[in-house]
Amino acid sequence: MTVSTATEATARPGRRLSDEAFITSLVAAVAVGLFIVASVAVPNFFQPLSMLNLITNNWAVISLGVGVSFLLVSGNFDLSVGGIVALSGVLAVWFAQAPDGANALSTGFGFPTWLAIVCAMAGALAVGGLNALFVVALRVPSIIVTLGAMMVARGIAQVITQGSQRNTNLPDDFGVLGNLTMFGTSVKLPVVLMIVLVLVAVFIEKKTVFGRLTYWIGANPVAARLSGINNALHLTRLYLFSAAIAGAVGILLASEFKSGFSNRGTLMEFDALVISLLGGIAITGGFGSVIGMVFGALILAVVTSAATGMVLSPDWQFILKAIAVFLAIVTQTWALARRNR
Known about the structure:
The chain is mainly alpha-helical. It has helices at residues 19-41, 48-56, 59-73, 81-96, 113-137, 142-161, 176-179, 189-207, 209-219, 221-226, 231-257, 268-278, 290-309, 314-339, and strands at 165-166, 260-261. The protein is globular.
């Protein structure tokens, strides 16, 4: 039995672009258009440093967007990533803190930094495994499971930090990874890792069986299963993959600021979902791309930066994000429907 995906082009004479490439091009054009408008409307927006900051300041959300995008393409959600960011960062700090602290918040296990990182990653993967257990084995809707996992992860982080943060009695090498600059520039290691992650994700998406299976499961999970695909195993791997990315992001942020903060990563799960949807990934699965997600991140970054430059309050910025997502989904749906008449 063959399984078709929503990413394949409709067979029409003379058509050069698949529907996916068409939407990605549309999203890229919108990103460029918004940048031009913001450069005209917002004072000092069009500067080399501002353009660089659009990427570097959003490395964490773009990284999370990779895992969220793969799961969305498979027809599932992951709203737990923000909680995992907080939990992994707090765990890394807690395990690395010396055991002779002056108070509870400065006392830890005294592990070497590398071992603290390994243990923190294990905690992140445990949350990803919990997601997979309930979604795959118990067939609970992923949006409910991952929302609950996010609250559990953040709740554990709040218990460990007593609702505050741990930022003392850490070894000197704990802050190296998050603040290491590359190639004699001001670009930090996390930004470079984000770029590598995106490139690897694009390769997996376009050139590997793993990527193809993700689209097949999202387009038609029943047909995929009847074709011999192990849907349960594949989704388990996707949830572990997303949790591993979130864990790494949380550890790098904890290293950058040399602190484990229980509120770190708040609403990052929303931003990761927003940039995926802005990038043209179908909320029903089987359609979209990582490259589109990156352009979606640029759209969100331009909107947020422009709103800040216009001195709009954070409340208005939140409303602008919601409007941007709504318009993106409506526009993409209309454009595809018109194209496929």
